[in-house]
Design brief:
Arc Repressor Mutant, subunit A, Tetracycline Repressor, domain 2, elongated, disordered N terminus
Length: about 210
Amino acid sequence: MPESEPTPAAPSAEAPDRPARADARRNRDRLLATAREAFAAATDTVTLDAIARAAGVGIGTLYRHFPTREALVEAVYAAELNEVVASAETLLDELDPAVALRAWMTRYAAFFKIKRGMSDTLRAGWASGSIATPATRERVTAVIAAMLRRGAEAGSLRSDVDPENVTLMLLGVFLSTGAIDVPDKADQLLDLIVDALRPAAGPNGR
């Protein structure tokens, strides 16, 4: 007696949704990336319509992912802060701690530039409670502390520096240079900070 044909497996209930979910994730990621670029380059208010157009999606798609301007700004801010924190360990794995710290400062400066483009929405959202208040300074200072510790162990950074003081110096650089139009001024000041964090030369120049 011939074997019967196997019964075809019933299609997964989730299968039709997978392409839609993948498209939705790509749209969300594209919107976040586009918003980051827009806020980093902003000299005036960045509109949600402009972000949607630049991302190649309709405004309805943007609102499905981010129902309000505050929701988009909060998502961009959180993603950027997470990347800034995570980048430190990658840099330490690849570079001498002092060099890694200087490279990380450049990454932090980029985050601060994006934050500046969102500042009005962030301040209003934090004041009203519509945007959660992040522990930004604490997380940044913890990163600096870890990098200073690694640098002290390697002998390329001082061991007697309060990480909070470094955080305050960085904020001073970003706030002051953001108000002037002098190319490379922030880089010059960041170089000075790293130089100040290196151990003093001994009597033999070492």
